[in-house]
Amino acid sequence: MSFSVDDAALDGSSLRIWLWEESARLGFDDLRITDTHLGEASERLQEWLAEGRHGQMEYMQRHAHIRSDPRHLVPGTVRVICVAMNYLPPEIDLDKEWDRLEDPTQAVVSMYARGRDYHKVLRNRLQEFAKSIEKKIGAFGYRVFTDSAPLMEVELARKAGLGWRGKHTLLLNTASGSTFFLGEILVDVSLPMDEPQDEHCGTCQACIDICPTQAITAPYQLDARRCISYLTIENPGPIPVEFRRGMGNRVYGCDDCQLICPWNKFAKRSELPDFASRHGLSDADLLQLWSWTEPEFERRHEGSAIRRIGFSRWRRNLAVAMGNALASPKLESAEKLLMHQALVAALPSADTLVAEHIRWALSNSSI
């Protein structure tokens, strides 16, 4: 059963101010509140699934009925507290990220994944936040989430006013661009709600034009089956040959649509040590990462979002990037020889998935 903020002997505005201040104390950069009604977003999700644009993410289809309404996930929910946390560490230079994409020796990992797994960081802080709220207003029903349940969190955050949906389908706001994580607390408390923001993309379609695999098929329309983030992370099988060239040297995720977005000129830096790049992932080269054994992969990526894809997918992605490097006129002869030799040496012990990608990579070699 839900109750109103009056039951907590606090007027709505006072509690709202306290919630924002407490969330800021815990490291969150914004907080907004909305209800559970998703309207047309649920219908658009069904259409997207019916077209098969979710690829092999079967969990999207399996939990679609829950995803369409937060009350199916947590019965009794009447409000969703949506928070944002900036993740861009100080050492990342967005201009230099373009230079790394043009260097065939480099291994490019998506910026969000270079530090500690954000799921753990946000979940712990959300849990602490919920406990603080409980101390403030008394016992109430809640559950915390961050990209970890069948919940349309981007749509909820948009509706709450944390930003607007960009044409690349990511959430944008004028203060932080798109370089922030989202988290939610589903509550049975009738908190005062916020209003959605106006959209500010205008006629810009830079994100659509820059996508290496044309995954953004139209404004606000993403085909995950073409997206490098999906292909390198969620896709369990071979990278389709038609997308391997487009991957370039991206070995985990892709940031192109964010790097090109004018709003990310305003991206805020995070001082949280959790999001600082680890193990040299902001300037790692392909041969360096290819030299890791499976135990090294497990050890170096402990506490990282990357670890969940496993060693085989990691090597698959690296093999594609090395194949693109071997085909690049920018690769020096000595580097080409070392890369060729490393791939040949790995082939006899490679599993079926990795071996196929190694052979493709070697087919690009002139040695």
- Kindly state the number of beta strands: 12
Query: Can you give the helix content as a percent range?
Result: 40-55%
Structural class: alpha+beta
Percent strand: 5-15%
Strand order of the largest sheet: 2-3-8-5
- N-to-C series of helices and strands: EHEHHHHEHEHEHEEEEHEEHHEHHHHHH
Number of helices: 17
Distance between the termini: 71 Å
Q: What would you report as the Rg, rounded to the nearest angstrom?
A: 22 Å
What is the mean predicted local confidence, pLDDT? 92
General description of the model:
The chain has 367 residues and is of the alpha+beta class. It has two domains: 3-90 and 114-190, no CATH class; 215-260 and 277-362, no CATH class. It is 41% helix and 12% strand. It has 17 helices and twelve strands. It has helices at residues 12-25, 40-50, 58-62, 64-67, 70-73, 94-101, 118-137, 153-160, 206-210, 228-234, 241-247, 256-259, 286-290, 294-300, 310-326, 333-346, 352-362, and strands spanning 3-4, 30-34, 79-86, 108-109, 142-145, 164-165, 171-172, 180-187, 189-190, 216-218, 221-222, 250-252. Strands 2-3-8-5 form a four-stranded antiparallel beta sheet, sandwiched between helices. The protein has a two-stranded parallel ribbon with strand order 1-9. The protein has a two-stranded parallel ribbon with strand order 4-12. A hairpin with a 5-residue loop joins strand 6 (164-165) and strand 7 (171-172). The chain starts with a strand and ends in a 5-residue tail after the last helix. The model is unreliable at 1-9 (pLDDT under 50).
